[in-house]
Design goal:
0% strand; mainly alpha
Amino acid sequence: MVLSVEETFFRMLRNREFDAAELSMSSYCVTLGRDNPDFIAIPVFPSRFFRHSCIFVSAKSGIEKPSDLVGKRIGVPEYQMTAPVWIRGILQDEYGIDPA
């Protein structure tokens, strides 16, 4: 079955439709806070890559390097998605940008 990543995550998290599926690492970690977690992670990573290349800015913004993002508003589709979690960590650890 070929589904979009978002639909796969949603259907697995919401309905437990599959025997195995890729999940957002951060969404998986959220489930670990429950008394009886519904999922067990196995070490398979079908869509891993460095997230440094996933930050885009308007060509008219004047932003040329990550440190130019200090004090700017940064939009993400979902706060707990794995990519934004990594990006917040990269910006904070490597460039001193407060993710708040």
